[in-house]
User: Fold this.
Amino acid sequence: MRKERPASKFLAVASAIGISLALAACGGGGGGGGGGFAFLPPTSTPPASGGDNPPAGDPPDNPPPPPVQPVVSCADLAGRSLPASLISLPTQGATVTSATPVAASDAGNTLGDYCRVRGTIQPVDPNSQSINFAVNLPEKWNQKTIHFGGGGFDGVLIDGTEVIRFGPAGKPAPLALGYATYGDDSGHRSGSITDGKFAANDEQLANYGGNSLKKTRDVAQALVLARYGMAPKHAYFLGTSTGGRDALSYIQRWPLDYDGVIANEPALNYTGTRLSNVAVGRALYNNGGAGWMNVAKTLLVQKAAMQACDKLDGAADSIVSNVESCRLLNSQILASLRCSGGADTGDTCLSDAQLDTVRAIESPLDFTTYALANGVKRAGGYNLLEGALVAGPFTTRDLGTRKVPANPATSADANMYVTGDQWVKFFVTRIANFDTLTFDPLNPGSYAARVTEVSNLTDATNPNLAPFFAHGGRLIMLHGLADEVISPNSTIDYYKQLIATVGQASVDQSVRFYTVPGMGHGTGSFIPNWDSLAALEGWVENGLAPATGVAVDAVAGTYGRTRPLCLFPAWPKYRGSGSLDAAVNYSCVTEVGDPLACPNLPAAVTTYKGGDSFGEELRVQIDPATMAYTVTIDASLQRTAGTVRSGTLVSEGNCSYASAESGAVFSFGAGGVLSGGVNAPSGGGFAPLLAFQNAFQNAATPTVFNPVANIFNAVGVQQGTGGTAAHASSVRLRNAGTFQYCRDPVSGAFMTYDASCTQTEKGYITYNGTRGAFDLYTTSPTGSAVTTGGTLTGSMVIGLVNGVAVPVHLVRESAANMGMRVYGLQQSLVSGTADGSYALVSVKGENHDATVAGTGLNLGGAAAALNYDTPVLGVAQADAGRPGNFIFNSGVLAFVSTDTAKAALEFGVRH
Assistant:
């Protein structure tokens, strides 16, 4: 059980004065004089509806007690004051400027009956602005309080009426649930949360650094005590961004005041963040703005990172979950973005100066000449190359619209730089027209001591939370790994330092730190909704420590999908089957592997046998040591046998590799199967190919095909002078090596195999030892099955994937009829069997990602629902979202389209 929180200073004061805590009238002062007004009954007779302690004999974890009714009316709070002596930090006292009853029936009010209190806390420095505070006191109080933190540079009143940030949709605001809530404006007013002018005043800066929080808390708790005649049973602090920093700063400085804290995306390394802002600005704007990137270039970077890393977690879902493996691809991603020669040649690449800007955003700042508060010598970089979005539809921020910034910077300049510029001008130099581009974050020169001084005022990096933990305090932290405003890596650094300071066991007992892939700063491709307050309360009040949660996505286009909320350092990895949108199909894992490593590569130089969509029979040789490849044409109607194409494969992760074949991506599947492409024999682009490390060979006499004979479905393509058309049929390969195709007489496509079918092709195959494939002869469609005579019309390669036959028919009948057909068994295909992520190549010379998850298909971004064993066993039919059918055979998926605007045939391997 949690230890009892010590009585507040106000209870001690109440005890000292014997019967009550007095709030003095505005002209009173010191709590005495003729204007005094006693708000409390004697402390020995608490209200019957509740108290600090449950009745004797009650179990320690009772259901919530009945709500507490006020003992003082709302109107009686108006115009009262609290003397400075009852506020822990120096002030000139506090004044309630208004106390307004709000009825549940009032128009637009969803917060129930409550007393809306507003007031001010007067500064010591007459040149400092006062602190505006808001306190909300419900008519039915649940004996709990919530302190809400601020945001940005503050300057806006946090009025305590907000809902839980990243909370479950539809959950009422805490005030509506009976919590007394409060917040403040940190002691200054501004029309913008990026306005730093207030920091030119010492008291205002100290208030922003955390002093206003303590002052507001003291006043709010006094008002709670006055209104209800009792102190709260539990006090919580909730904050996001600057508010997350507020939450951590509070428990580091005043560890006994709160029982539980939620710190979302906390700006805890506040000074490091601002120094990083300046470093990014210098990279963007120095040297005449050579490093500045417009939105098109920024999106180019983001796209390259997403393409390289999206699938490292097993799911193609526009979320980079395996961030640390992705980080290993930084050099490769940057190299792929570089303009030839390093000069800026347009929006399709980045110059060397622009690549340096990306590095400035991505890389941490390491301080070697000075330290920040609590000995911190690093500011975390942003995960721009690991899925963070600093431009585009999933964020409201970008790198500005011009390469020369204003002084001071404005909204037309990079969002990161605007806040850094304000910080240098008003927190550090206090020179309003200072040129921030001349300020070196790594070597601030004469300002180094001032930077450290400001850091001591504003940062929340003290890792010694032992006093907070000692009284049972509990902390939940959450940070998006794609945060584009506050680096999650600084929060990770703090968490590691926390472990080093108080020990892993203490952290395990008192802290839960969740990192969320795809989540930006309240933005991103995944915004989690989960009930953090309920989790915190269950932990503090009932000892139920949170574990892995389930977060519901709040992004409009993907609303409702779920992911596990993993405890750092774990991340959600797709299990390989089931819906990509369901958290149950993911596991929280901690593995970090080399994303360029491919377990499906051969161990030595290996030759794969197969063919392409023009019916060409070919061999692909792979050298895993150098990733050199050679494609040799063995049989073709369009080019000479022996034609060779060669190049070097470059890893793209997930066993996929870029090639020199007109953009074709080679992918290695389990069991020795390879998909890819080779420059097309005509028309440009590439012809998709499928090849196998092992193939069925039948050189014995007599020939025996029993190991591979079966009834199959076939999907394929017919290409030639007559155009391109999809092929779908059934086919039987018999023990003697004869075959028969059947097509439905109405649809001209799939049918249940029937030896008496009328739309048929017949023939036989015979092994050609020279080429390591089967020559294919076509015989009369009306005659019986024979193994002699006929017309040579192509060949067949029967791949063996983990011993299972995957026949590929390569059609070379004439210039009007060339193509390929891939076989899959005509037997029931059960939902889930084909689940997984695929790399596909198409007859249009395209590379597509595809995901099959139960009854859902996503192919190249188009989503469709699937019906299995439709129209025949072994075939999955996709609906209008991506109309067509696929067959699946041993990790090979082949999709034939019924939409003539799409590629007639796409096929590839499962990752």
About this structure: The first helix runs from residue 9 to 16.
